[in-house]
Design goal:
The chain is an all-alpha fold. It contains 17 helices and two strands. It has helices at 2-9, 12-34, 42-49, 54-71, 74-98, 100-117, 123-137, 149-155, 159-164, 166-182, 185-188, 192-229, 253-279, 285-303, 308-312, 315-318, 340-365, and strands at 330-333, 336-339. It has a two-stranded antiparallel sheet with strand order 1-2. α3 crosses α5 and α12 runs antiparallel to α17. The protein is flat and about 105 Å long. The model is unreliable at 368-374 (pLDDT under 50).
Length: 379
C-alpha cells in the first residue's frame, strides 16, 4: 500500500490540487460561519442570546430603528436591521426550548388520537404507536436556552462534502485509470489472484487518502467553528438545537455532531469504493468523471423522490445524515417500523463492500497483454 500512496504523493500537481481543496474548504467555511446569509450574523445571534430580556431588547431596537430611519445613515440603519433579524432568530430558539414540553406532548397525543380514530392499520398503525412511545419516553428531557452557533454552522455547511470527493477521485484516476491508459496494468496485474491483491492495495491506499482528507477538511471546519464561537453547550440535549425539537433520539448536541461525522466518514468510504468501481473499467479520465457525474445525478433524483425508501437510500441524502434525526419517521421493513439512521448506515457499509468486491472482479477480468514467444535456444 505504501507504494500506491507514493504514486499519488509523487505527483506535485495532484498534491497541490488536494491542498488547495483543503484551503478552499476552510476559507469558504469561514465565510459561511461569519456571513449574514440569513439576514444576521452568528455573532449577532450570540449577542442576542446573551440578553436577559429579549422582548424588551427587541422593542428598544425598533425604537432606535424608527429614529434612524429619519435621521441616521444607511449603514446604521442596516446594522440595526441585522440586529433585529438576530433577535428574531434568538426568540425562535428560546421559544423552541420553552415550548418543548407542550410540543412533545402534542406530537404524542396526535399519534394516539390517530390510532383511536382507527384510520390507520398495518405498518402505519405500528409506526404511529412506536412514534408515540418514543415521544412519551422523552418526557424528562429539558432543552436549554443556550447559544449553539458552532453546531449550527457545522451542520449547515455542505460544500465540504463535494470537495472531500476529490480525494478518492484523485486516487482512482491515478492508480487505475492512468495506469490503464499508459499500459502499466500489464506489469501490475501478473495473475488472476495477483490482480485481486493489487486492487486491494490500491483500494486501501484510496481509503487511507480519503481518511486523511476527511480529517483535514472537517477538522479545519471544526477548528474554525471552535475559535469563532467555542463549543459550549455540547452536553445539552439535542432538542435544544434549533430545528431538532421533533428529534426522537435521546442524545446530546455533541452526540449529534459525532453521529453526523461518523455518517459522513462512512459515506466518503462508500463513495471511494464506488469511484474505484467506475475507474476499474474506465478507459480514460473523462469517462470515469462522466460516469461519476451520472451517478451523482441519479442520487440527486433519488433524494427528490416521493418514495421514502429511495430518499433514504440516496447517497445525496445520506451525505447529510443528521437530517434523518429531525423527526420520527420510520421505514417499512417487512411490515416493521425500522430506524432510518441505522438502515442508512447499514446500506452505506453494504454498498461499500459490494462495490469493493465488484471492482476487484472487474479489475481481475480485464485481459492482460499477449505473451511474447521467444524461439527455442540452440545448443
Amino acid at each position: 500500500m505504501r507504494g500506491e500512496l507514493r504514486k499519488i504523493t509523487g505527483s506535485q500537481r495532484l498534491c497541490l490540487l488536494l491542498v488547495l481543496a483543503v484551503l478552499c474548504s476552510g476559507v469558504l467555511f469561514a465565510l459561511h460561519a461569519t456571513g449574514d446569509s440569513g439576514g444576521y450574523t452568528v455573532s449577532g445571534l450570540r449577542h442576542a442570546m446573551a440578553q436577559e430580556d429579549l422582548d424588551g431588547y427587541e422593542e428598544r431596537l425598533w425604537q432606535e430603528l424608527e429614529q434612524v430611519a429619519y435621521t441616521g445613515a444607511r449603514s446604521e440603519y442596516d446594522a440595526l436591521r441585522r440586529e433585529l433579524y438576530a433577535v428574531d432568530a434568538a426568540l425562535a430558539r428560546v421559544r423552541q426550548a420553552e415550548e418543548y414540553p407542550s410540543f412533545r406532548a402534542g406530537l404524542a397525543a396526535e399519534s394516539r388520537l390517530k390510532l383511536r380514530m382507527g384510520l390507520f392499520d398495518g405498518f402505519a398503525a405500528r409506526s404511529l404507536e412506536q412514534g408515540a412511545q418514543v415521544y412519551e419516553s422523552l418526557a424528562d428531557v429539558t432543552p436549554r436556552r443556550e447559544f449553539l452557533g458552532s453546531a449550527e454552522v457545522l451542520l449547515s455547511f455542505h460544500l465540504t462534502d463535494a470537495l472531500a470527493l476529490l480525494f478518492p477521485l484523485a486516487a482512482g484516476l491515478t492508480l487505475l485509470t492512468h495506469e490503464r491508459a499508459s499500459g502499466l496494468l500489464n506489469l501490475t496485474r501478473p495473475t488472476r489472484f495477483g490482480r485481486s491483491r493489487v486492487y486491494g492495495r490500491k483500494l486501501a491506499a484510496a481509503a487511507t487518502l480519503s481518511t486523511v482528507g476527511f480529517v483535514l477538511l472537517y477538522g479545519i471546519n471544526a477548528l474554525i467553528a471552535g475559535l469563532l464561537y467555542g463549543f459550549a453547550g455540547l452536553d445539552a440535549p439535542v432538542q435544544s438545537l434549533y430545528g431538532f425539537a421533533a428529534c426522537p433520539y435521546r442524545m446530546t448536541v455533541g452526540g449529534l455532531l459525532a453521529l453526523s461525522a461518523g455518517m459522513k466518514y462512512l459515506w466518503l468510504l462508500c463513495c471511494a469504493a464506488l469511484i474505484f468501481l467506475l475507474c476499474a473499467r474506465a478507459s480514460n479520465a473523462a469517462a470515469a468523471v462522466g460516469c461519476a457525474a451520472v451517478c451523482g445525478s441519479i442520487a440527486a433524483l433519488m433524494a427528490g423522490s416521493s418514495q421514502l425508501w429511495l430518499r433514504n437510500l440516496s447517497l445525496w441524502q445520506l451525505a447529510d445524515g443528521q437530517a434523518l434525526c429531525r423527526e420520527a419517521v420510520y421505514l417499512n421493513l417487512l411490515g416493521s417500523p425500522s430506524d432510518r439512521v441505522l438502515l442508512g448506515a447499514m446500506f452505506l457499509a453494504a454498498l461499500a463492500v459490494i462495490a469493493g468486491i465488484g471492482g476487484a472482479a472487474l479489475y481481475s477480468q480485464i485481459p492482460g497483454g499477449a505473451a511474447i514467444r521467444l524461439p527455442a535456444a540452440r545448443p
